[in-house]
Amino acid sequence: MGDRDTPPSLSPLQFDILLALTDRPLHGYGILRDVGDAARGTARLGTGALYTAIARLVAIGLIHETDRRDEDDARRRYYSLTARGRVALRAEATRLERRLAEARRRGIRPVAAGRS
Question: Which residues of 19-31 are buried (b: 16+ CB within 10 A; e: fewer)?
């Protein structure tokens, strides 16, 4: 992972979670829905994988649990992106942009919707 100042490498799921939290704090189910909507049915995310990834992101300081509690369900925990998490998200987006540019340079093009 590198030192505390170097953004850690992110798995695709970690990237998706950080991306889901860019606009507002969300509880686990809200993150699950956001990631699922972004995948547009191409991947299924289980709650076990989600909460394992959330715990890891909290442990490395990229997200934190907020003080917010849900009126309907006090057990819901809300998570928010930290400043370090925003840096890591930007770094990963930059890395992905570079890889995409390289793929295009090598003649790899996106698959049209509905085709494989």
Answer: bbbeeebbbbebb
Question: What pLDDT score was predicted for residue 108?
Answer: 94
Q: Is the dihedral of CA 89, 91, 97, 103 positive or negative?
A: negative
Contacts of 25 (CB under 8 A, 6+ apart): 66, 68, 78, 79, 80
**Ordered domains of the chain (ranges, CATH):** 12-105 (1.10.10.10)
pTM of the model: 0.83
pLDDT in tens, 46-56: 889 999 999 99
Q: Is residue 50 within 8 Å of residue 32, measured between CB atoms?
A: yes
